Amino acid sequence: MKLKVIGSICFLLLVLIVSCQSDESIEFKRYYSAGSLVYQNHCQNCHGAKGEGLSALIPPLTDTIYIKDNLKSLACNIKYGLKGKIVVAGRSFEGTMPAANDLTPIEIAQAITYISNSFGNKQGTITADQVNDDLSKCSN
Question: How far apart are CA 140 and CA 75, in angstroms?
């Protein structure tokens, strides 16, 4: 009987330890869920609910290679807009993405975390500090 009680207690402790989330996991979930809302309010109208873009007019966000290779410039693109030709998923897009000057660095970080971890992308948490650093290097 004593062994069963000790075993049950050990099992419960193990379950509690395993179920606890790390600070990084909690931070990611906060950024990702808030980023979903930022995306819905500022990006989804053009890039689509599933990041599919709009035909030949607006690039998709589903090209994991493009997102990964351009992760450091996404903050600048969001904050200051994007003009000119880009190639995404092997297709050329030329036009203007409007600036989102009203977004704060934390909102941009949340949006990038959402975009870079949705639509087939898996890039982890992008923090406000990273966005501030990236924004300081913008050529706009």
Answer: 12
